[in-house]
Design a protein that fits this description.
This protein is of the alpha/beta class. The chain has one domain: Alpha-Beta Barrel (TIM Barrel). Helices cover 36% and strands 13% of the residues. Helix 13 packs across helix 14. The N and C termini lie far apart (43 Å).
């Protein structure tokens, strides 16, 4: 079987049929309106993904609260947003009724930007800090996640992604660094109970066996005490807790997982496609395979960090470019059982029509991500995000942003 046949083959996720193996990663783009509703820019981005033929789309980090958030114009999911989100999903399904969409629900916690929101934490981390959350406040936040899930269901989403990655609140609670003595801190039993309790509450709230529930996971955050480390201050990697967590969530009904690594504040190079380190993509394949090995065959594992593989010309050494292209490597990983789907993040910015161009025999027309990371600079500067290399309005926005703030010297939140 060639890579085209593999990547365009259908797959079942829970009780839903996904038309191919292409997954559009949740990419924060800072382009909502003032109330957190999708703007015209938001519609345009997702309309292109739907026209581009992605099998599954993950709606970017949509916050369950306006009080604590990382982006000034971040998508929000509260009762006031329901009508706008319903129109948004209805319009997208008119464009392409076959694409599935899940909402990545998030709370930013210690990553919240104090200039316009409340930074909170479960244990102060060096360089971040924040108001210490009480047990009652965490219970309220969990209620907000449940309400957001019910809104997602009501507006026509196919499911939700319970965000447990990249240093946002879910990661902050389950990591070993959270050794504070409270309901969801200290022992692994108590820290993991947060994810399990939240999963069960969401399931009870939506009460629909066809509604997909899964999670994007930073299997290793990449800093001492982060999720996937051996202890509260340990720099050593230990997969005991991450593997136990995904098995526990699967037992409670999770139908898919999205592999990831890193932390938006302290280890962004593990989560982004950096130009000078494309070989880090191999680490993601390793972790996706590790997840796949401990889960049931029918539980879908989505791999990440495929943008550096590009077309038949990339910066990866020691491998024939014919075998290390995005399509060839992605298909190989699926055929060998390392993962079930291929996640595209920066590449979905560079060319949201990538799956359609493959299907239509137009591979030579695909724009591949240059890994310039200028889109990331726009996000950190709280500007609407898009591909600077191939989309002139975003290139002009970057020029204007640098005139105002200067060129960003460090890529982290």
């Amino acid at each position: 079987m060639g890579y085209k046949e593999t990547l365009l083959s259908p797959i079942k996720i829970g009780n839903k049929e996904c038309v191919n193996r292409f997954f559009a990663q949740p990419m924060e783009c800072v382009d909502s309106d003032e109330e957190g509703n999708p703007s015209d820019l938001t519609y345009q981005r997702y309309e292109n993904l739907y026209k581009g033929g992605f099998g599954l789309v993950d709606l970017e980090a949509i916050t369950v609260t306006n009080e604590s958030r990382a982006r000034k114009t971040q998508l929000e999911i509260m009762p006031r947003n329901e009508k706008a989100l319903e129109r948004f999903i209805r319009k997208l399904k008119e464009v392409n009724p076959h694409t599935l969409i899940v909402f990545q629900l998030t709370h930013s916690g210690e990553i919240s930007e104090p200039d316009f929101s409340r930074r909170v934490c479960v244990k102060p981390m060096y360089g971040l800090g924040g108001d210490l959350l009480s047990e009652e406040e965490v219970e309220h936040i969990m209620d907000q996640f449940v309400l957001a899930s019910k809104i997602a269901q009501a507006v026509g989403a196919d499911g939700i992604d319970m965000k447990l990655c990249h240093g946002y609140l879910g990661s902050q609670i389950i990591r070993p660094f959270n050794d504070r003595d409270w309901k969801y801190g200290g022992s692994w039993e108590r820290r993991s109970a947060f994810a399990y309790d939240l999963m069960e509450r969401i399931q009870k709230g939506v009460n629909d066996k066809d509604f997909l529930i899964g999670s994007k996971m930073s299997m290793w955050e990449g800093h001492p005490g982060g999720f996937g480390s051996a202890g509260p201050e340990s720099p050593l990697m230990d997969m005991t807790e991450p593997l136990d967590l995904i098995k526990g969530l699967e037992e409670r009904g999770a139908s898919y997982f999205i592999e990831s690594l890193g932390n938006v504040h302290s280890a962004m190079n593990y989560m982004e496609a950096l130009k000078d380190a494309p070989e880090l993509s191999y680490l993601h394949i390793y972790f996706a395979n590790m997840m796949k090995k401990v889960l049931k065959p029918e539980t879908v594992v989505i791999g990440s960090h495929f943008s550096p593989f590009r077309g038949k010309k990339n910066k990866l050494l020691s491998v024939d470019p014919e075998k290390s292209s995005l399509f060839a490597m992605g298909a190989h990983c699926i055929e060998e059982g390392m993962m079930d789907m291929v996640g595209l993040g920066r590449q979905s910015f560079a060319d949201p029509f990538t799956p359609a161009k493959l299907a239509e025999g137009r591979e030579d027309e695909i724009h591949y991500c240059t890994q310039c990371m200028n889109c990331e600079e726009l996000m950190i500067r709280q500007q609407p995000v898009g591909c600077v290399a191939y989309n002139r309005p975003y290139a002009q926005r970057l020029v204007e942003t640098r005139k105002k703030y200067g060129k960003l010297t460090e890529l982290h939140t």
